[in-house]
Amino acid sequence: MAFNLTKAQWQGHLAMFAFSGCVSGSFSLGAKAANFISPAALNAVRFLLAAMIIGAIATALGHMKRKNFEAPWRFLILGGLFGFYFVMMFEGLKTAAPVSAAAVFTLMPVMSAGFGYLLLRQITTPRMALAIVIAGVGSLWVIFRADVSLFLAFGVGKGELIYFLGCVAHAIYTPLVAKLNRGENPFIFTFGMMIAGFLVLSIAGAPQILATDWLNLPPIVWIALAYVTIFASAASFVLLQFATLRLPSAKVMAYSYLTPVWVILWELAWGNGLPQPMVFLGVAAIILALLVLLRDEERS
User: Fold this and answer.
1) pTM of the model
2) How many domains does the chain have?
């Protein structure tokens, strides 16, 4: 299998590999913290703190210039979409089990491919489609721990439907980054999006933010907030912006299938042991699909 990728494509794939690792930890932490704080309040603060981090980096690199913030409506659209995704994620995790939410998450690559065609006329070739299907099956095999009875018992509840709406917003966001970017540096573009997301969430969630007893929140909320600010916001946003300018939307979102694999590593690090051996058949399918996606394609 030959990998005739350009340097930019390799960079995009490496960025999404790191991205998948960053976002995976937010599922379990989010589920633990979701019932102690309003999703709008938590995400408004995370956007602000992440914007401060990215803004400081952009300033240090000399990118903070007025010309980089032309047409601010672009940032409002992107910030609103991403803010909506995260609010729906935490709202859904109040009632949806992490396994069910992860199953909904695996629908994003297919939706992103559809929106990528509608917005950018990006073609999902038969080989890419096959790889996405293989990765999806492998991901579900891991999520349901190689137990067919768990899959058959899967039910779609209110939490799953709420999170699905957020995933639709995320799937639209991915191709829109490439469509609306005008050559801005990823740090600048991410900074503009996060400031806009903070403003949108602050206005829409003002009552919840004011009603939050910030001084008496349990430690798990602050742990979750620190993680999602640094890793699942600042770092992952930059990585996503970086990759979407180098790869088609379908390939970018295909890396979401790695989430269950990263979760296995998280569980191992936390001392919860490894899953049963049959689960690794799904891991192998995911890795095989990603290797297929790594192959260059003239129309990709």
Assistant:
1) 0.79
2) 1
